[in-house]
Amino acid sequence: MSAAGLCIRPMLAADVPAMASIEALAFSDPWPETSFHELLAHPFSRMATALDESGVVVGYCIMLRAADEAEIANIATAPAARRRGIGARLLDDAIAAGATEGVVALFLEVRESNTAARALYASRGFVAVGRRRGYYRHPVEDALVLRRDAAAFE
C-alpha cells in the first residue's frame, strides 16, 4: 500500500477503537479511547482518519483550533503502514484545512529524538520555536515546539 491509495476523511465514532489501537502502538504514553470520543463532540477539534484501499484505518491526525491558531495535537500511523507517506498526507491535509480556516500559525510538539518526524515537519515549513523540558514520559524526554507561520501556508 502507498499513500496514493489512501482516503482521508473526517473521523467517525466507529473509527475510535482503531485509532486508540494505533495510539497505543505508536506512543509510550497513549491517550485513552475516551479522549477521542470527547474530542469528537468539540467544534474546535478537526479529526481526520486515513483509510487504506480496504477501508482499514491506518492513521489519523487531530488538530485543535483556538482563534486563528491551531495545534497538531496528535498524528500517528499504524506500525505496519509506516514509511509509506501516510503521515505526510495527513499532515498536508491538516495544513490545507488550516489555511482554509484562516489559521495564521500552526504548532506541534515532537520528541527531540524523533528524527523522522522532525524531518517531515521541517519539509513542510515547521521550525523550532521552543523546548518543553521533560515533556514526554516513558522515557522522559524534551519536546521541541515547532511552528509553521501563515507565510508558509502561501
Task: Give a nutshell description of this structure.
This protein has 154 residues and is of the alpha+beta class.
Explain this structure.
The chain has 154 residues and is α+β, with helices and mostly antiparallel strands. The protein is 31% helix and 36% strand. The protein has five helices and seven strands. The protein has helices spanning 16-26, 33-40, 86-100, 115-123, 150-153, and strands at residues 7-10, 45-51, 57-66, 69-77, 105-111, 127-136, 141-149. It has a seven-stranded mixed β-sheet. The chain is globular and about 40 Å long. The termini are far apart. The model has no long low-confidence stretch (mean pLDDT 91).
Structural category is: alpha+beta
Determine the fraction of residues in helical runs and give it as a percent range: 25-40%
The neighbouring-strand order within the major sheet is 1-2-3-4-5-7-6
Averaged pLDDT, please? 91
Return Rg in Å. 15 Å
SS field, number of helical segments:
5
Quaternary structure annotation: single chain
The separation of the N and C termini measures 31 Å
Q: Would you count the extended β strands for me? A: 7
The parts where pLDDT drops under 50 for at least 5 residues are none
Morphology: globular
Strand content: 35-45%
Order of helices and strands: EHHEEEHEHEEH
Main beta sheet strand tally, sense and closure: 7 strands, mixed
